[in-house]
Amino acid sequence: MTSMCVNDVIKEEYSFVYGDEAVTYEVIRKPQSEDKKRKIIIKVHPNCEIIVTSPEDAERSDIHEAVMKRARWIYVALKEFRSHLEFIQSKQYISGEMQFYLGRRYVLKVIEDSDTATSSIKLYRGKLLVTLSTLNKDKANQVKTLVNKWYRTRAEIIFHERLAELLPQTTWIKGIPSFRVLTMVKQWGSCSAKGNLMFNPHLIKAPKECIDYVILHELCHISEYNHSEKFWRLLTSVMPNWKQVKTRLDGMAELYLNE
To answer: What is the pLDDT of residues 185-206, one digit of tens each?
Structure first.
């Protein structure tokens, strides 16, 4: 379980197992006036996030019981939303579209400014702001190129930071492994037999915990170049909640990989 407090609202994260899948859900505890009936509300969102809203003094056991009573409904809803994600339309790279960065959503805003010397891109007040100095015939492709270059640059920076943070846990590794950022269709990362690492730049769209999972997964392959029981034990030793994190990443994969 993890928890944090934002603007006096306590957020917690738990999981339960349904079939062969670990399902993660977030609990948000909110103050409730005495004249209102105490309720535990469960919502499954189209992006496959599961949010449970409860009174701030609700017992953990009561929340768990409420979730387990609706476990089948939650699982069915997840399957339905995941099937919808398979038919997500390709991006047009126009203002108003949604972009992701480190698990957060940002609205793409495209501005044309002939007075600007060079085109630029930056995060600004909840938006991914793209400023074009000149236009070519294919404006969408111009924006796409800038966006993908920005993602790759941010990926190289953040992946280096996370790798340095995680290496002390991986005692079987000597030195600092190098890696390349390479776009892959169906993989978040890979490790060659020689220990060469590659990470998908689209992974930068996911929360840091998901990035850590992929990095640790590939670092474990340096010791165990397979998916044997020994490999999974090693991964569990450095990330005990990897199943929940993997489920979270898998649930958003279609959105993160969508171009």
So the answer is: 778 998 888 888 999 999 999 9
